[in-house]
Amino acid sequence: MRPAARHKSIDFETCPDKSRAVLGFSNFLFVPANRPDRLEKALASDADLVCLDLEDSVPPAEKDSARATALEALARLASPRLALRINGLATRAGLADLLALAATESRPKFLFLPMVQSAAEPEQVAAILGDDCPRLIPLIETVRGLRHADAIGACPGVYGLMFGGGDFSAELGVQLAWDPLLAARSALVMSCATNQIAAIDVPFIDLVDEAGLEAECRASKALGFTAKAAIHPRQIAAISTVMRPSEAEITEAQEALDAFAAGGGRAIAFRGRMLEAPVMHRYRRILALAGIPASQIDQTT
Known about the structure:
By secondary structure, the protein is an alpha/beta fold. The protein has 12 helices and 10 strands.
């Protein structure tokens, strides 16, 4: 019998109705930690978050120097826009990354954990980093990891799950494309919904297919993802435009909430559709994702 998920305490950065965690970013850019010259350019971009990468983009011979460079940048810049992806905890480099992070006071707001396959991994990170542990984002990149996504997402300190489509598609032996990975994406979104955490989508790897990037962003958002990674600054604008709530979405959400409140929380017709309590969760989430403070979002139920 599978043990019940433990209660997770999520701080003020949640939707007002506690339906999903709001991370505060709709896009982020991976930057190789062994390329400090790219970091300044990334921070000068419009990316909501810049993630220093110690994993896939850094060759084995440069892991140690990249780690030192990343920790130095975290301390020197002290930017809330900086995140870090360490190596997998099943590797020597990953353990070295974790211990080095434990020994420094300059920690990122978000810590991405690659190739997570069980709840033991984020639990280990949280135990080692203690009270100052960053907000953890495990990457689900294998079938085994996806099978355990409910338990991984239930770990205290986990604020979202990211779909790692590259390794996942390689394990399945399929193309890194929307249709072959739709079932996996859907399962990950459901695990995130179960645990009231955010779902983050894999980067779109074709740098010249702007229409394809926009289409995939729209499909990701429709499925329930609230953020998408980028591999080049030129992708940020398209991702932001789609993944962030539009002015039309914000206006509709506010008007729907106002109408529902005016109706005393009873089911009412609004623009030809029925409004009732479950529907209002989505509207509150839109406003929260738009950065509107919880105190300004109506809570009529």
